[in-house]
């Protein structure tokens, strides 16, 4: 398609979000290759819910590879309120991106799924073969089913057209440039913001829920390094879970304690048990990743939390929005 062999033009949708920024940083810090041209686009460049705008974006940049991160996202409470919106907007975005990639002859697309797509009633740990085994948790079924459909569509493009479209399933991602909004953000960035405010005002820290649910957290910069490997080396259409091991799962209370320590918060910690906990656990197996990359080193959780807290404190003016 007019590209010399080995020359990559990589279009990253959702390029200014948490994972997009992490990939930008990792590429800029020496992980990028000379034959790779990286293009990071955001909703300012095109409205991906529009088929026409998506197609125009692809025709303008003519990518050989796509990392598809763009999505309508939100935390537990926003999902509960807006399941239909999450379904419709994400289905439109995903169909437009995958179909434009197919029409423009893109060699490979790597999309980003989420562990919330897993069945609510399941055995643990969950692996890649179990995604479609039952309904997802009712709190965010709209988002979850829209993400599952990427996997269905990837298989369709492969079977009908031989396309190498695949997807990764990260566990809970956190890091610099996250959404630190307390109402609509995810648990870890929300807690970081709350600790910051409690420290400023000298008040107690209130954590929503019991603190008992358990999560596997992955640092955005570790995830970015794994994304580069998937883009360059991983040849399966079947998705791959990108996660720390089951043994590295932490409770919300342990996560809160790590943030309290990183931000040197001296106040009281209160758990508001009138607030919903969401799923108790979603433990995922990273056995498939370990078969491919037995030696991959994850950043230790406490270190990653410290780096994220330091970034948030240094960028408070822009980060809190």
TrEMBL record:
<protein>
    <recommendedName>
        <fullName>GDP-L-fucose synthase</fullName>
        <ecNumber>1.1.1.271</ecNumber>
    </recommendedName>
</protein>
<dbReference type="InterPro" id="IPR036291">
    <property type="entry name" value="NAD(P)-bd_dom_sf"/>
</dbReference>
<keyword id="KW-0413">Isomerase</keyword>
<keyword id="KW-0521">NADP</keyword>
<dbReference type="InterPro" id="IPR028614">
    <property type="entry name" value="GDP_fucose/colitose_synth"/>
</dbReference>
<dbReference type="GO" id="GO:0010595">
    <property type="term" value="P:positive regulation of endothelial cell migration"/>
</dbReference>
<comment type="subunit">
    <text>Homodimer.</text>
</comment>
<dbReference type="GO" id="GO:0050577">
    <property type="term" value="F:GDP-L-fucose synthase activity"/>
</dbReference>
<dbReference type="GO" id="GO:0005829">
    <property type="term" value="C:cytosol"/>
</dbReference>
<comment type="function">
    <text>Catalyzes the two-step NADP-dependent conversion of GDP-4-dehydro-6-deoxy-D-mannose to GDP-fucose, involving an epimerase and a reductase reaction.</text>
</comment>
<keyword id="KW-0560">Oxidoreductase</keyword>
<dbReference type="GO" id="GO:0042351">
    <property type="term" value="P:'de novo' GDP-L-fucose biosynthetic process"/>
</dbReference>
<dbReference type="GO" id="GO:0047918">
    <property type="term" value="F:GDP-mannose 3,5-epimerase activity"/>
</dbReference>
<dbReference type="GO" id="GO:0042802">
    <property type="term" value="F:identical protein binding"/>
</dbReference>
<comment type="similarity">
    <text>Belongs to the NAD(P)-dependent epimerase/dehydratase family. Fucose synthase subfamily.</text>
</comment>
<dbReference type="GO" id="GO:1904906">
    <property type="term" value="P:positive regulation of endothelial cell-matrix adhesion via fibronectin"/>
</dbReference>
<dbReference type="InterPro" id="IPR001509">
    <property type="entry name" value="Epimerase_deHydtase"/>
</dbReference>
<dbReference type="Pfam" id="PF01370">
    <property type="entry name" value="Epimerase"/>
</dbReference>
<feature type="domain" description="NAD-dependent epimerase/dehydratase">
    <location>
        <begin position="10"/>
        <end position="245"/>
    </location>
</feature>
<keyword id="KW-0511">Multifunctional enzyme</keyword>
<comment type="pathway">
    <text>Nucleotide-sugar biosynthesis; GDP-L-fucose biosynthesis via de novo pathway; GDP-L-fucose from GDP-alpha-D-mannose: step 2/2.</text>
</comment>
